[in-house]
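job 3f2a | input accepted
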Amino acid sequence: MSTATLAHLDDHRDESPAIVEMRTTFAKMHQLSRSEAPPSVACRRAWLDALERVIRAHTEDIVAAIQADFGTRSRHETLLADLFPTLAGLKHARQHLARWARPRTMPVHWAFQPGSNKVHPQPLGVVAILAPWNYPVQLALAPLVCALAAGNRVIIKPSEFTPQTSELLARMIREVFAPDQVQVVQGGPEVAEALCRLPLDHIVFTGSTRVGHAVMRAAAENLVPVTLELGGKSPVIVHGSYPLEKAAERILVGKLLNAGQTCIAPDYVLVPRGQTQAFVQACQAVIARLRPTLAQSPDYCAVINDRQFERLQGYLAEAKAGGAQLVELNPAGETFEPAARKLVPTLVIGANDTMAVLQDEIFGPILPLVEYDSLDSAIAYVNARPRPLALYYFDRDSGRIGTVVERTTSGGVTVNDTILHIAQEELPFGGVGPAGMGAYHGKVGFDTLSHCKGVFYQSRMNAAGMTNPPYGKPIERLLKVLIGI
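job 3f2a | predicted structure (485 res):
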């Protein structure tokens, strides 16, 4: 970063104290990332160990903070969806870090032998992580694992919609990291925008496509690379031969996790024509078995805030007014009080493509059902729409499964279940097209947040002199061997 750029960072005296402090922190991190040697593998392991210790020490605090932010959030869902993936990623990174970080020997074209090639992973420098509200711990700390494993310094901006969790994350990070190593900055959109306008080395953003546009525009000012994990309408295709109740069970488990407030939640279901009512009955049987009560259950999550609750109610009102059939999955016939922000899970039948439930990412416990006539038509329906973050297919025929996987494009796929591809540390997790760009988790995350520098090592004995000018017959003979002219 140039002296002029550093001076520019100081020309914001009218901004909030949080932004001024963040700029000061960034300047220090940047300077250290350029002046100090890259951290050793042992140092990085120590960072990961410290992160795991503080997570485990504050497990119940995390559960309580997320519960307070949501109003109702299942303790088990917090442990399962926020803490388990984070701790699994930590363990995986620790186990493989030495191999990921060592220089990798690469093949050499015969013309340059006996020289050698290696790829040297190096820390990028300063990485920003902008985390959303729906999984406020996992989506802040899982990218942090990748960033620390790669040897970076990190600024985390959690969501302002989960203030209790954000404050807890800030305290946890202060317990185990120096402020010039990892820092949590809090605040609203103005803090996030100021962060994205810094000359960072990488930004990892998880959130809506609309905000993703703003992040990318701000990052472009300094040509900062971005990893965007966005979302979209993740489809489910159920083949006619697959047992409907089994499909309904796995779809509803994924859909109602966090009350549908999941970026890879099933967004709509493509059902074979003529099987919609059978699928509805399967869903009713499943919900009665798995979630016999909802309104008073501590295991059924509330919608995060009034604005999101009203948005979801608007989707249902529009669909009903447009002639769609709404089927509430409410086995105990409970009354849902709006003040609790719990929304009854609802199937939507007969919606048309102009309705918001088939246009917008739903991000709530509403599930449209769309009939299809053939597998080809189901694939065509998916492919005619923006590429989704996830796709789910239920079938037991390996040939048809291969066809769907090959002929559709999505960020990731789970076959005969939902959600679970995100929990595989050996698989990249990321979007494509409007669902995002780039990927992380495991080694892919390490490489994303490293500069993988190619190095050619010339040998003492070599034929490089054959390409020196003045050119003549030796290079003519060499070119004839190399390219045939």
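job 3f2a | The chain has two domains: 3-230+436-452, 235-430.
job 3f2a | closed
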